[in-house]
Amino acid sequence: DAKTTQPPSMDCAEGRAANLPCNHSTISGNEYVYWYRQIHSQGPQYIIHGLKNNETNEMASLIITEDRKSSTLILPHATLRDTAVYYCIVRGQTGANNLFFGTGTRLTVIP
Amino acid sequence: ETGVTQSPTHLIKTRGQQVTLRCSSQSGHNTVSWYQQALGQGPQFIFQYYREEENGRGNFPPRFSGLQFPNYSSELNVNALELDDSALYLCASSLAAGDYGYTFGSGTRLTVV
């Protein structure tokens, strides 16, 4: 399964855009990139996913490079409630379609 | 639409004991996965159940077992508890087919003493 690499931590000022990078250089052609976040003491929360094209929903935007070896999650206007650990995941290729979490990026939104 | 609910929220067990954790999947979801999250680490996949059958397993010993019921709810059983089994146990439900996201519960915090 493709591995992902994320910076361990990032800070972002409240109201500014948070750009969280992820490298997945060994991604296979039919593997999706998923983003989840985990707020302290809660279960992970699905944010967004994509295959090749950029995606946007009410929570965030996902930008995937043309070679698919990296991606960026963008939170357009970060709030204090966005402080969490963000996980970039490439969906496994086993029949179970399980998710392989790394250690993620701890995003701290600063007032 | 109800989310994923897990019970109990917290549990303390003694080394060598057995424990059963429970999970009710989100309405409409037919697949349940279990994850173990040690302190400071990301969740690790234990196994997944679909149509009451185990549908994939991570690197966990056989003393970790599970069940899925006709209503898609699930149980995680751990026998012969070890101190290292202390963790947050997360249940996630999803639809079997397609590229849908997973809905996670808030987890059960298990402490083995």
Topology:
The complex is a heterodimer of chains A (111) and B (113).
Chain A: E1 9-13, E2 18-23, E3 33-38, E4 45-50, E5 55-56, E6 61-64, E7 70-75, E8 84-90, E9 105-110
Chain B: E1 5-7, E2 10-13, E3 19-24, E4 31-37, E5 44-50, E6 53-57, E7 64-68, E8 74-78, E9 87-94, E10 103-104, E11 108-112
Parallel strand pairs in B: 2-11
Antiparallel strand pairs in B: 1-3, 3-8, 4-5, 4-9, 5-6, 7-8, 9-10, 9-11
* Shape, principal axes of CA atoms of chain B: globular
Q: State the helical fraction of chain B.
A: under 10%
**Low-pLDDT ranges of chain B:** none
By oligomeric state, this entry counts as: heterodimer
Helical fraction of chain A equals under 10%
Order of helices and strands of chain A: EEEEEEEEE
Strands in their spatial order, largest beta sheet of chain A: 1-9-8-3-4
Largest interface: A-B, 26 and 25 residues
CA-atom Rg of chain A in angstroms: 13 Å
What is the helix tally of chain A?
0
- Structural class of the helix and strand makeup of chain B? mainly beta
Instruction: Let me know the number of strands of chain B.
Output: 11
Largest sheet of chain B: 7 strands, mixed
3D structure, described in words:
The complex is a heterodimer of chains A (111) and B (113). With 111 residues, chain A is mainly β. Chain A contains no helices and 9 strands. In chain A, strands 1-9-8-3-4 form a 5-stranded mixed sheet, with no helix packed on it. Chain A has a 4-stranded antiparallel sheet with strand order 2-7-6-5, with no helix packed on it. Chain A is globular, with a radius of gyration of 13 Å. The relative contact order of chain A is 0.34. Chain B has 113 residues and is mainly β. Chain B is built from no helices and 11 strands. Chain B has strands at 5-7, 10-13, 19-24, 31-37, 44-50, 53-57, 64-68, 74-78, 87-94, 103-104, 108-112. In chain B, the strands form 2 sheets. In chain B, strands 2, 4, 5, 6, 9, 10 and 11 form a 7-stranded mixed sheet that branches. Chain B is globular. Chain A binds chain B through residues 32, 34, 36, 41-46, 49, 51, 85, 87, 91-92, 94-104, and chain B through 4, 33, 35, 41-45, 47-48, 55-58, 90, 92, 94, 99, 101-107.
